[in-house]
């Protein structure tokens, strides 16, 4: 057998060295790095404790914040305005003078009425016989009514505030004629001379459908969220209209909510979203809905970690669902830890509905609790 020897060139030696290095690197990965990667591929489990919370049912509506007190005030007597000691934007108290009219004619009317009464009383004193006395008494009664009317007009010469609040309109000034001789405005309506708006009582009127109005009643609590955000203010249902106000063909009824919470910073005309709470339960045991799963046979379970670190299914009985939490009526106690989510890095693991995978390239954002860790996407309850 003939042996053929080949001469080794520098290029051949270089290729050989590269092959040897690659083989060594592959061995290092197989026996070292690969084993470390396999160890790091263990599933990561996130747990949450069952806790007590408040669950409620409500009807939603929207409306506009308005003051509960909004009073239009005008003279009921005829005369010429002689003084207006207030201005728009001023806060007034009950009984504070707003304006006055001249009393010359009013005084004359009162004196004339009193004179008529005196004459009637004199005739009554001179009357004899049953018929004359009865007629004279009737004249006295009429004259007395005239005096009362004239005195009331004299008292009305000074217009006073019937309620406390902010003056938002002053539509009269010195020299204006007021009363029946002033007539209506150009629009055909009589314009109020003063408008007083209360700033310490507010309300919102919302419209509720025929189906929902049967669920609520007066004195039910309400949560009012004003346009622009911020913490909600609270109130109670003060009135429920009996007549439908809808023109869409579907019956709907007006519901008035009186704001009972913090009154500071409220303004007329602000849009508001209202939750009318018709049922509220406190100390309800709940877990995140993401932790609950329902099998094909209807069995509802959560997962817990046993003493060996293994995941076990625990049967539970569920109640109502509100938002992203589900009520647990049997099977758990307050503080029991349940598995919220199980993630396996770099794999597309399957199994319970609350399992997932770590996304390739790392995490986007932070965890739900604001700490360092992966983002867990919450979904609806597993039991529908």
From TrEMBL:
Transmembrane feature ranges: 12-32
UniProt feature, compositional bias: Low complexity: 352-361, 374-384
Region Disordered: start-end pairs: 345-384
Biased composition (Gly residues): 362-373
Domain Multidrug resistance protein MdtA-like C-terminal permuted SH3: start-end pairs: 283-339
Keywords from the UniProt entry: Membrane, Transmembrane, Transmembrane helix
Protein name: Macrolide-specific efflux system membrane fusion protein
One Pfam family, short name: RND-MFP_C
């Amino acid at each position: 057998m003939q042996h053929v020897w080949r001469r080794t060139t520098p290029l051949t030696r270089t290729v050989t060295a590269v092959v040897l290095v690659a083989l060594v690197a592959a061995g290092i990965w197989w026996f070292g790095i690969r084993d470390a990667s396999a160890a790091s591929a263990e599933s990561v489990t996130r747990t949450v404790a069952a806790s007590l919370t408040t669950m409620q049912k409500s009807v939603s509506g929207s409306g506009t914040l308005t003051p509960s007190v909004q009073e239009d005030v005008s003279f009921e007597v005829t005369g010429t305005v002689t003084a207006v000691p207030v201005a728009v934007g001023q806060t007034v108290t009950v009984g504070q003078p707003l304006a006055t009219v001249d009393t010359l004619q009013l005084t004359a009317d009162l004196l004339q009425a009193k004179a008529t009464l005196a004459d009637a009383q004199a005739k009554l004193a001179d009357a004899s016989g049953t018929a004359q006395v009865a007629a004279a008494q009737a004249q006295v009664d009429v004259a007395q009514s005239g005096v009362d009317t004239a005195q009331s007009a004299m008292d009305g010469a000074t217009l006073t505030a019937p309620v406390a609040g902010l003056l938002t309109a002053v539509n009269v000034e010195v020299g204006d004629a007021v009363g029946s001789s002033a007539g209506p405005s150009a629009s055909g309506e009589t314009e109020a001379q003063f408008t007083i708006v209360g700033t310490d009582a507010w309300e919102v009127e919302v419209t509720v459908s025929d189906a929902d109005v049967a669920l609520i009643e007066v004195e039910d609590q309400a949560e009012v969220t004003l346009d622009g955000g911020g913490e909600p203010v609270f109130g109670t249902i003060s009135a429920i209209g009996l007549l439908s106000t809808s023109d869409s063909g579907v019956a709907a009824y007006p519901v008035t909510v009186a704001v009972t919470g913090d009154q500071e910073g409220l303004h007329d005309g602000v849009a508001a979203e209202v939750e009318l709470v018709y049922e509220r339960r406190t100390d309800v045991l709940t877990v995140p809905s993401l932790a609950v799963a329902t099998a094909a046979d209807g069995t509802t379970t959560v997962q817990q970690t046993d003493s060996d670190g293994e995941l076990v299914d625990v049967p539970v009985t569920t109640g109502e669902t509100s938002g992203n939490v589900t009520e647990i009526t049997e099977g758990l106690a307050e503080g029991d830890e349940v598995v919220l989510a199980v993630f396996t890095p770099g794999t597309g693991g399957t199994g319970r509905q609350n399992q997932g995978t770590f996304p390739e390239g790392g995490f986007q954002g932070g965890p739900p609790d604001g700490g360092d860790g992966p983002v867990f996407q919450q979904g609806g309850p597993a039991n529908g």
